[in-house]
Amino acid sequence: MFSILSQKNRKSIKRYLCMDTLKKVPMLQSTDERVLKVICNYLKPVIYSENSYVIRAGEPLDLMLFITQGIIWTFAGTQVDGSGKLNGSSSSSTSSITRCLEKGDFYGEELLSRISTYISFSDLPICTDNVKCHTKVEAFALLAKDLKTVVTEFWWYFPNLNNSELEEKLALSSVRAVRRRNREKKATRSPKLAADHREQRLAYQRLHASC
């Protein structure tokens, strides 16, 4: 149903359903709303059936999830030692419920923390939780590759990036991208695009001034 809507309507619906939840994410609470809107544009609708797993403990955490309907349980996976016994427990139970996620909740902030620091797929965090649907769940997913695109495009909003050489490359890439778009755009540049251009140029200048 969502796929038959116009692109404009899809953007509006995603912002309506997910913008408030995005603002709940601690790392995004002080982020410019323009960046949040771009993140919304990358969100993909997903549906999970009752009792299905979104992700299991030990798998790479490659998405953030923003729930719009349904209930998800997250519970820690129990490690097994070399003898096949449960570590730290004599109980026959292999897991314990730690959190219940419902409409308006999110999961996967560790991915944002990792990518906004290292921006590398080789450093994706490993999920320590089993994430299982208690009911049918409707949500929007932000994939790691799309989050990386956002961080690359708006790198100056993520001050935790700790690789100065990478920051310089990203700055140059951003400036070149703006120049390329300006060359391709024959019409007069809009005020918003001009503001973005100035902001990127100033960010690049600040980066070199701090070196």
TrEMBL record:
Q: Which GO terms describe its cellular component?
A: membrane
**Which InterPro entries does the annotation name?**
cNMP-bd_dom (IPR000595), cNMP-bd_dom_sf (IPR018490), RmlC-like_jellyroll (IPR014710)
Top-level taxon in the UniProt lineage = Eukaryota
Give UniProt keywords alphabetically. Answer: Ion channel, Ion transport, Ligand-gated ion channel, Transport
Asked whether the UniProt record includes Chaperone among its keywords, one would answer no
GO biological-process terms attached to the record: monoatomic ion transmembrane transport
Task: Indicate the segments forming the Cyclic nucleotide-binding domain, all copies.
Answer: 27-112
- What name does the UniProt record give this protein? Probable cyclic nucleotide-gated ion channel 10
Native source species: Prunus avium (Cherry)
The record lists the lineage as: Eukaryota, Viridiplantae, Streptophyta, Embryophyta, Tracheophyta
